[in-house]
Amino acid sequence: MSNSPKPPPLPPQYTGPGSPQDVPPAPGSSPIDPATLPGPIREELEAPDPVAIDTSAEELKDGLNRCPKCGATEIRQKPGTDLLICQFCRHEWHGERVEEQFGFGEGLEDLEGTVIASGARDIAADAASLMSFKCSGCGAEVTVNTENAMTARCHWCRHVFGVNEQVANGAVPDAVLPFHIKKDDAVARIRQFVDKRRLFALKEFKEQFTPENVSGVYLPYMIVDGNASADVAGHGEIETARYTRGSGDKKKTYYDADVYQVERHVDFTVDDLPLESSHERGNLDAKANTNNIINTILPFDTKNAVKWNASYLSGYSSEKRDLDVAQLRPRLEDQLLSIARAQVEDSVERYDRGVRWESEGLEVHGSRWVAMYLPVWLYSYHQPGRNGGMLHYIAVNGRTGETMGSIPVQQWKLIMTALTVGTFLEGIGLWILAH
Amino acid sequence: MSHHDGSLGLLLLGPAGATALYWALYRYYRNTDKSHGFERETLVEAKPVTGTDEKVDEVKGTQETRIGGDNVHEYRKRVGRRPDG
């Protein structure tokens, strides 16, 4: 075995529609006015969406969690200590919010260099995901597969283990955001989401639809704070005159415009930008997968994340982080540039014929990386097809309840409907031409 | 010419309407165009934007309604990256 360091693999490429290449449409907007569509389609489009709580909402302010022992929420800080105490069963445990504990929300403007929290450190190349423990109760060997779980029960004495110490395989993050939306609630949201999309849904999907099979998963993210400056340059045009030439059938509109060389500079900080730290989840090519669905339910109220404790994960599954800070940096820079372009948009409003940005530059003065597990309710349906088919997700944000999904389409039904409407429109067109 | 444009437009009404409806409904079901709108959903604190605007040219009598290659709203389309940063 050679010890020569290998360069990190290239970051995932995003090219498909729905990838970060496309700015998503505003929530609730529709490219076609529903009022112009036939009744049944209009009813589906206009049915209410599952309600999502704003991440700054009062319901999410607590950041606290249920007592791991009795489930009560009567939790107070024990005066003079870092312990939390359950007022119901008097159980005491650590549950600090990392935000205050590590000062993650502060000093963004003075951020310099790359600050990496201990749970976000590079993954050791030889680290295994299977970890074994000696049970402290009976001495038996217990194995935890950190690819999908962080707790295990000793099959001899029923003692439950959690992987609490930070291990080199990257499975233990700095913080975890516990589930807030209960399973029943998630099921109801998924049902509501699907009820709005039944007319053209795949028959097999509708027949097999069992939202009770939703599962709670903790997905790995890097939560990044950044302090950056960006410069963009290009050309903008302002209309100076508009006139028509020719007459009758040959009438045409012409424009005169002033062309400006435009340059903009902006200094900004971003707080808690979430990036998928799993290679597979970070691949948002909507032609090949539906990971963009899970991406859409971001953001979370990451300010309320608590210090890692594996007991939050018992009963849920988890996915392991497999990307390091260096591999995620290109994506951070890409998103910071997009944010910068959005920030300067208002300052070029007077260019009423638009601006063509031609070059852009970014300087990241400082960034801070925290590894976090975020709670997601996932319902999945596998649609058979070419290249292994397509796995469709419906995802519910485990904190805000924001719901998004991909419903497989019954193609022939959709095409027939589109053709019928098209034929109807063509009939109108021909009628107008004939008269 | 514009008379022909008009009839062509009316003839295309059917195919265009069918295509538009197909894609609108397809996206409504599959949500392929959705992703995290981090530009507006992330807490960003920006200092006032600075910059320069210098008139360099004039365009006369164009029929285009927008500048060629307008990307002011397409934040995520990367343009040439400057080597210095």
Key features of this structure:
heterodimer, A: about 425 residues, alpha+beta, 9-stranded mixed β-sheet, about 30% strand, B: about 80 residues
Total beta strands of chain B = 3
Class of secondary structure makeup of chain A = alpha+beta
* Helical fraction of chain A: 10-25%
Average of the residue pLDDT scores of chain A: 83
Distance between the termini of chain A: 83 Å
Shape verdict of chain B:
flat
Which assembly state applies to the chains in this document?
heterodimer
Per DSSP, the total helix count of chain A is 8
Strand-residue fraction of chain B?
A: 15-25%
The helix count of chain B comes to: 2
Order of helices and strands of chain A: HEEEHEEEEEEHHEEHHEEHEEEH
Number of strands of chain A: 16
β-strand percent of chain A reads 25-35%
Radius of gyration of chain A: 26 Å
Explain what the structure shows.
The complex is a heterodimer of chains A (435) and B (85). With 435 residues, chain A is α+β, with helices and mostly antiparallel strands. Helix content of chain A is 20%, strand content 30%. Chain A has helices at residues 39-46, 98-101, 183-195, 203-208, 279-282, 291-296, 325-344, 411-434, and strands spanning 75-77, 83-86, 92-94, 113-116, 130-134, 141-145, 151-153, 160-162, 175-176, 215-245, 252-276, 306-307, 317-318, 355-383, 390-397, 403-405. In chain A, strands 4, 9, 10, 11, 12, 13, 14, 15 and 16 form a nine-stranded mixed β-sheet that branches. In chain A, a hairpin with a 5-residue loop joins β1 (75-77) and β2 (83-86). The model of chain A is unreliable at 7-12 and 14-19 (pLDDT under 50). Chain B has 85 residues and is of the alpha+beta class. Helices cover 39% and strands 22% of the residues of chain B. Chain B has helices spanning 2-30, 38-41; strands at 43-46, 50-62, 80-81. The N and C termini of chain B lie far apart (51 Å). Classes of the chains: A alpha+beta (435), B alpha+beta (85). At the A-B interface, β10, β11, α6, α7 and β14 of A face α1, α2, β1, β2 and β3 of B.
